[in-house]
Every structure is written in C-alpha cells, then in structure tokens.
Design goal:
This protein is mostly helical. 47% of the residues lie in helices and 8% in strands. The strands form two sheets. A three-stranded antiparallel sheet has the order 1-2-3. Strands 4-5 form a two-stranded antiparallel ribbon. A hairpin with an 8-residue loop joins strand 4 (119-122) and strand 5. It is globular.
Length: 211
C-alpha cells in the first residue's frame, strides 16, 4: 500500500503482479472470468508469480531464459512459489518453471486474495468443483487504479509492476482498460524498455493465440 503525498497519488490495491493479473480477468464481470482457457490463464499467473520473485530479488532470470535462485535468499520466506521452483531444480528453462507453477497458480493467487480479505472460497454446486468469489468488488478495479497512478506513485516499486501487468494483459488480449490515452502511451513507452523480467514475459506471446 502506498500513501499519497505531494509527489503523487495513492494506490491502495495489491502490489503483487499475479494478484493484479487475476483480478484483471474479472474486471468486466466479477463472477465470470474474461479468459476461459485455464491453461493460458495458469501460465500467465505463473509468469506473474515468477516475476514477483525477480522484483523481490530472490530469483534471477538470465538473457538465455534460465531461471536461478540467488543464495542466500534475502528477506522473508517467499513461501510455496519458490519452494516449487526450488524443487524443480535450478537453473531451469523459464518454460519449465512456468509449466511446474501453472497448474496450481490460480489457487495460489486466490488464496492470497482470501488472506487479504477481498475473496472467499465457495462450495461447488450441481457438480461444479469448489472455487472462489470476491467479497470486495473494488479489488477488480486495482489494475485500472495502478495504471492511472503506478508510474507516478510515491512507491517506486509499483512502476515496474504496472508495466509488467500492462504487457501480460496485452498478451492475453485484456489491454483494453479505459485509461487515458496519455497514460496508455506512457505505459507503452515504458513497456518497450529493458526490464529484469523480460525473459519471463517473452514466454507470453503464444498465450494470446490460445485465449
């Protein structure tokens, strides 16, 4: 969470990239995801989860798209995501890390949203498997708020998250958020610059054709 001051506006949503990817999928309809291809969404969320670790400097991604763990791991325990990647063995191709994380990535992110208090688990009805639902519909507006404020937010860590989110949603065909033209242009220019998560994001173009 960031606080407003003279240097910029406040952003009160999740700062985690995968959280933002998931809620963006429900922006138009909180009860029905815009991406029906679970494999494509799972891969996009897996890329988001790995990118979070790059931003937190627990994982590096090399130019030849190999992902490896920094030792020792700085900061707090990064939890299950890093454990899954470590269990696969590093270094590993990005595609392999994404493939390992993708099947459980949606549940991982939903459970984080539950802990944040904006979602809850629901029982499956009429043969449907259990799932999740939003308890706070404002969460689905986090991506738009971040796009409008992230590049100017007092917290400098939000700008790279906003740019990565813009690129992921574009690859999923969900870049049509109603942000001002000037904001979209700034995001586009920022997205064209080199980022430490570029090797991860390079795995995304094939997803658009599957959605």
């Amino acid at each position: 969470m960031t606080r407003s001051h003279a240097g910029g506006p406040a952003y009160n949503g999740s700062p985690r990239l995968a959280d933002l990817v998931l809620v963006a999928v429900y922006q138009a309809d909180p009860r029905r995801p815009a991406i029906r291809d679970r494999d494509a969404l799972g891969a996009a969320l897996a890329v988001g989860l790995l990118a979070e670790q790059v931003f937190q400097k627990t994982i590096d991604v090399t130019p030849d798209e190999m992902v490896w763990l920094r030792e020792p791991v700085p900061g707090p325990d990064p939890g299950d995501v890093l454990e899954v990647v470590r269990g696969r063995g590093l270094p590993a191709p990005v595609s392999a890390a994404v493939a390992v994380l993708a099947p459980g990535s949606a549940a991982t992110v939903w459970e984080r949203l539950v802990r944040r208090g904006v979602a809850q688990p629901v029982r499956g009805l009429l043969g449907h498997r259990p799932g999740f639902e939003f308890t706070d519909l404002c969460a689905t507006q986090w991506p738009r708020a971040l796009f409008n404020t992230g590049l100017d937010a007092p917290d400098p860590t939000l700008a790279p998250v906003a740019v990565a989110l813009w690129r992921i949603l574009g690859c999923l065909g969900l870049d049509g958020f109603s942000v001002p033209a000037a904001t979209a242009a700034r995001l586009g220019r920022a997205a064209s610059r080199t980022s430490p998560v570029d090797p991860l994001l390079s795995a995304l173009p094939d997803l658009a054709a599957r959605t």
